[in-house]
């Protein structure tokens, strides 16, 4: 990581906006996320969280404003961004007709990961889905597909991962395992950006957070600050979005 | 049941209108109507060169194929929809959450498909023909008869595919045996009686000579397989969860000469495991082309053999260009959004895979040239077929990017495609008819094709990919 990246933040957005026809999905959002943070983007359904992640990972182009990820401009170099980060999209979409192990080989080939099989074996073991390695992705359960997508996002050991609803399809045992993994991951100097509407997760594992409502950024801060004020994240969140006119 | 039907109709409309806008899709039947209306004025010209009856075969065969294709898409729907819409669910799968039986849902689904695609395709064609009929000296009862027989032809295709796919979902082996019995029976009947296959198609017989018993038989051919399909229907496939040996790594190594070997390997695996390779080769390529060859051979009395071969090569090229949809049908860009893969890379890779698939039309042209005694025209026919195919591919890529089978229903897209490809085809047909060897000039089409592909890379890279 360059000195500039550390100084400027891993993710920096300035007046980021995305419009779909007349609908403004993300409206003038400016945030800066530093190295080693486990940052949570929080908001009710339809608040623009997924659109925000799609813009940050170069999947869709911002209508206006700017965003840099790991020092790369997402508009100018979306492929460069996707090369360096790990992404788990909101809907798990591994290719239907590849088996789990073939999909990881495919990811390995596209990302030029040496010894991908060895790494895949570790993940099959860690997330406990080795018995499904030869099953086609279309025949996997949602939970197993989520495990597979989790694996593809981390198999190349990125310094930044962007995850949309990280725990949504996992059972409680797997949720615990994944939460521990993410916490350990940032301790090693990596950065994680998650979007979620499950506030308990954010309160438990996130260091910093932002609240997005109707595409607008209502608040950015740290969980520690809230704890100092003896406030719970869910109360704080609800009071903010209600003030902003959430029904 | 009626409520379910109306909601399924709304759902089908919204699936289409969400993809390319309500207006564009609403214009689609209007465009079909316009084409049928204008095309009807060509009938007197065709009648001068084509023996009576053959045009009837062509149009009934087209609607039979349309029924087969619509039914095929409907039943592949879950897989295609999952690829295109992610976790989207359709009412067809609501037996999982609502107190409605699978049979009732499937029955409503069949009725919905019938009504919806009748409105989309059958009625506009017949209406266009009916409006033009006073000007082309066609008896006034003919459009009504055509409405009946085309509807029955379409429904026969739909019923046949629903029946076969229901058998498939129960047992692949039984389906195989059934197909073999049908093919042998059909061939034996034709050989024994000397009656052509068209005579076994009740809607066509009804068109030639209307009679109540024939109408009854035509209806029975639709109703009996549909009823069996509804009774046998199960949403559980015979072999839902299979295990596969890793094919990606060895294939990637074998395809190392491709620009993106893993993408090519994935395309090939998709084709083979989805059943598209055999199914599409048979139903979307060989059967329509067999039919075309049969119809073109009728022109043997009016045209020199070389011209027929070249005409066939042109049409093969157009149909071969649709192989691009084989490669995109089960693929969704959303699978690549978490990977460093750009849209131009994907387009390039799919076009390379497409180039490999062109061995199929090339082999067919070689076979037909030799079998028909037209070996002398093999070179121009081959160049013509491949040039048309690659040019039509370039137009398709330019207009539809990675979503050809979806965006083709956009009236503007289809019209632009027809114009861009149609003009080139007319010029090539004229050239070929002047001198078959002039057809080699069709290789010049590679130039606009190359330019279109270049423009397409920039065009589709700049756009947010539609999340089908």
Description:
- The complex is a heterodimer of chains A (247) and B (468).
- Chain A has 247 residues and is α/β, with parallel strands linked by helices.
- Chain A contains ten helices and ten strands.
- Chain A has helices spanning 3-8, 49-56, 78-84, 100-111, 116-126, 142-154, 172-187, 199-205, 223-228, 233-243; strands spanning 11-20, 23-33, 38-42, 64-69, 72-73, 85-88, 160-164, 191-196, 208-213, 216-222.
- The radius of gyration of chain A is 18 Å and the shape is globular.
- Chain A starts with a helix and ends with a helix.
- Mean pLDDT of chain A is 90; it is low at 1-7.
- Chain B has 20 helices and no strands.
- Chain B folds into two domains: 1-241, no CATH class; 244-468, no CATH class.
- Chain B has 468 residues and is mainly α.
- Classes of the chains: A alpha/beta (247), B mainly alpha (468).
- At the A-B interface, helix 3, strand 6, helix 4 and helix 6 of A face helix 4, helix 10 and helix 11 of B.
Indicate the topology.
The complex is a heterodimer of chains A (247) and B (468).
Chain A: H1 3-8, E1 11-20, E2 23-33, E3 38-42, H2 49-56, E4 64-69, E5 72-73, H3 78-84, E6 85-88, H4 100-111, H5 116-126, H6 142-154, E7 160-164, H7 172-187, E8 191-196, H8 199-205, E9 208-213, E10 216-222, H9 223-228, H10 233-243
Parallel strand pairs in A: 3-8, 3-9, 6-7, 7-8
Antiparallel strand pairs in A: 1-2, 1-4, 4-5, 9-10
Helix pairs in contact in A: 4-6
Chain B: H1 2-20, H2 22-40, H3 43-49, H4 54-85, H5 102-132, H6 141-170, H7 172-193, H8 202-208, H9 212-232, H10 248-254, H11 261-273, H12 276-297, H13 305-321, H14 323-328, H15 343-357, H16 359-371, H17 378-400, H18 404-407, H19 411-434, H20 446-462
């Amino acid at each position: 990581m360059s000195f500039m990246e550390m100084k400027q933040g891993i993710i920096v957005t300035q007046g980021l906006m995305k419009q779909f026809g007349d609908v403004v999905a993300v409206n003038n959002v400016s945030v800066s996320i530093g190295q080693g943070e486990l940052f949570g983007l929080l908001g009710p359904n339809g608040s623009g969280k997924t659109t925000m992640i799609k813009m940050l990972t170069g999947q869709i182009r911002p209508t206006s404003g700017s965003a840099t990820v790991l020092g790369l401009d997402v508009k100018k170099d979306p492929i460069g961004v996707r090369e360096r980060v790990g992404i788990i999209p909101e809907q798990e979409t591994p290719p239907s007709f590849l088996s789990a192990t073939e999909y990881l080989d495919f990811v390995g080939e596209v990302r030029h990961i040496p010894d991908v099989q060895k790494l895949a074996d570790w993940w099959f073991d860690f997330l406990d889905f080795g018995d499904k390695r030869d099953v086609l992705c279309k025949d996997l359960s949602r939970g197993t597909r989520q495990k597979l997508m989790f694996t593809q996002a981390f198999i190349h050991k990125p310094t930044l991962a962007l995850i949309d609803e990280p725990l949504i399809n996992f059972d409680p045992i797997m949720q615990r395992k994944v939460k521990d993994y993410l916490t350990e991951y940032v301790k090693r100097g990596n950065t994680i950006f998650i979007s979620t509407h499950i506030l308990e997760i954010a309160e438990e594992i996130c260091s910093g957070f932002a609240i997005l409502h109707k595409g607008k950024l209502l608040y950015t801060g740290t969980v520690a600050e809230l704890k100092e004020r003896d406030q719970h994240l869910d109360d704080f969140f609800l009071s903010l979005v209600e003030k902003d006119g959430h029904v | 049941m009626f409520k379910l039907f109306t909601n399924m109709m709304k759902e089908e409309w919204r699936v289409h209108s969400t993809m390319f806008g309500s207006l564009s899709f609403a214009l689609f039947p209007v465009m079909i109507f316009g084409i049928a209306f204008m095309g009807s004025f060509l009938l007197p010209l065709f009648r001068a060169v084509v023996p009576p009856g053959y045009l009837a075969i062509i149009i009934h065969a087209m609607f039979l194929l349309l029924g087969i294709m619509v039914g095929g898409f409907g039943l592949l729907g879950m897989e295609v929809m999952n690829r295109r819409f992610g976790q989207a669910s359709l009412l067809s799968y609501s037996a999982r959450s609502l107190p409605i039986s699978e049979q009732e849902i499937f029955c409503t689904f069949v009725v919905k498909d019938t009504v919806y695609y009748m409105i989309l395709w059958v009625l506009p064609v017949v209406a266009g023909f009916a409006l033009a009929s006073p000007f082309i000296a066609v008896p006034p009862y003919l459009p009504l008869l055509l409405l009946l027989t085309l509807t029955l032809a379409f429904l026969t295709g739909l019923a046949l595919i629903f029946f076969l796919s229901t058998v498939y979902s129960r047992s692949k082996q039984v389906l195989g045996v059934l197909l073999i019995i049908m093919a042998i029976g059909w061939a034996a009947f034709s050989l024994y009686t000397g009656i052509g296959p068209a005579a076994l198609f009740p809607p066509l017989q009804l068109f030639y000579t209307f009679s109540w018993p024939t109408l009854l038989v035509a209806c029975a051919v639709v109703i009996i397989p549909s009823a069996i399909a509804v009774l046998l229907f199960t949403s559980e496939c015979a072999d839902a969860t299979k295990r596969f040996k890793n094919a990606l790594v060895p294939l990637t190594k074998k395809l190392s000469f491709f620009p993106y070997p893993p993408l090519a390997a994935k395309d090939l695996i998709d084709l083979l495991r989805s059943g598209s390779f055999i199914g599409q080769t048979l139903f979307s390529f060989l059967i329509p082309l067999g039919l075309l060859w049969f119809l073109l051979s009728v022109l043997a009395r009016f045209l020199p053999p070389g011209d027929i071969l070249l005409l066939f090569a042109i049409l093969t090229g157009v149909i071969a260009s649709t192989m691009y949809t084989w490669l995109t049908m089960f693929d969704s860009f959303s699978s690549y959004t978490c990977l460093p893969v750009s849209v131009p890379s994907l387009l390039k890779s799919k076009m390379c895979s497409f180039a490999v698939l062109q061995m199929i039309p090339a082999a067919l042209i070689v076979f037909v040239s030799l079998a028909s005694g037209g070996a002398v025209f093999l070179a121009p026919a081959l160049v013509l077929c491949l040039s048309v195919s690659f040019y039509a591919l370039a137009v398709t890529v330019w207009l539809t990017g990675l979503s050809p089978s979806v965006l083709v229903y956009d009236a503007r897209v289809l019209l632009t495609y027809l114009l861009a490809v149609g003009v080139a085809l007319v010029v090539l047909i004229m050239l070929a008819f002047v001198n078959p060897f002039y057809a080699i000039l069709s290789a010049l089409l590679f130039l606009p094709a190359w330019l279109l592909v270049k423009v397409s890379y920039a065009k589709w890279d700049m756009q947010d990919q539609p999340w089908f």
